[in-house]
Specification:
Blueprint: H1 2-26, E1 32-36, H2 43-55, E2 59-63, H3 69-76, E3 81-84, H4 108-124, E4 128-131, H5 133-141, E5 146-147, H6 150-153, E6 169-174, H7 179-184, E7 188-192, E8 198-199, E9 206-211, E10 217-222, E11 231-234, H8 249-266
Parallel strand pairs: 1-2, 1-3, 3-4, 4-11
Antiparallel strand pairs: 5-8, 6-7, 6-9, 9-10, 10-11
Helix pairs in contact: 3-4
């Protein structure tokens, strides 16, 4: 008699559990949306999304370059992080050297868009990763300046850009007190190099975290990071390195985790 009494309860419990499992499998998994200031147009630009999604398939990259700038800023509000990607030179007029424009390859649309994205990302408190040109324009946006052309304006024996981008590498030294060191776990590394410009005067709000042997700044972070959103700016291209390197794999996964934490905390 007791067995018959409990049988309906047991059956109902099994049905409820099975239904819950089924429904959980039907719920669409929310992606971690990461905005790219430019992520298409060539194999190199497409490398950013390939890198991030290979590190975490939950990532969805949103390319903001090919849409109206106002819509791009609006789209950023639905993202959990921003990557300022590599590309052409920042107009030197923005850092007091307009006469040097003839020595640069400039994309005015890119400059305008990225200054707007930097401002909006700060308002939203988004994690930001700045790569190559991204490192340079972030510095300019905050009041710093750039070396217009390393080969002619800076005395060095290190080749920072080669005809064959796959064969251009140099060492860097990382400050052990930096956030970058905490992420990658090493104070020395070999990184790729593909740029003819670099940070000259670093904006006051930043502090260098890595240098190449000739003294050029290869990475920086907030001078006082407390109560500020995650920001790391690097001169190399982590998306082109083997992900077995901590300067690519571990570095990228950490950034994605920052985006995930922002999403869980701020987005519905």
């Amino acid at each position: 008699m007791k067995k018959n009494l409990f049988r309906p309860i047991l059956i109902n419990a099994i049905i409820i559990i099975s239904l819950a499992i089924f429904l959980s499998g039907c719920v669409k998994h929310e992606k971690i949306k990461i905005a790219l200031s430019k992520g298409a147009g060539s194999e190199h630009y497409e490398g950013y999304s390939k890198w991030l999604t290979a590190l975490n398939p939950d990532v969805e990259c949103i390319d903001l370059y090919f849409i109206d700038k106002d819509k791009a800023v609006e789209a950023l509000q639905g993202c959990s992080a921003l990557v300022l990607t590599g590309g052409p030179d920042v107009n030197p007029g923005y850092y007091g050297k307009p006469s040097d424009s003839s020595r640069c390859e400039i994309d005015p649309k890119r400059d305008t868009l990225e200054f707007l994205l930097i401002k909006k990302a700060a308002e939203l408190g988004l994690p930001v990763l700045c790569i190559c040109r991204g490192e340079q324009i972030m510095n300019v946006a905050m009041g710093g300046s750039l070396i217009v052309d390393i080969p002619t304006d800076f005395d060095t024996t290190i080749c920072h850009r080669c005809d064959d981008k796959t064969k251009c590498f140099h060492d860097i030294e990382i400050e052990t007190s930096s956030h970058l060191y905490q992420i990658v776990g090493t104070d020395k590394a070999l990184v790729n190099s593909s740029h003819h410009q670099a940070v000259d005067r670093l904006a006051d709000c930043f502090v260098p975290t890595a240098h190449s042997p000739d003294g050029l700044i290869e990475a920086y972070q907030w001078r006082t990071p407390k109560d500020k959103p995650f920001l790391v700016a690097v001169q190399w291209h982590p998306e082109r390195l083997d992900t077995a390197s901590p300067m690519s794999g571990r570095f990228g996964r950490y950034f994605i985790e920052q985006a995930k934490q922002f999403k869980n905390k701020n987005l519905p």
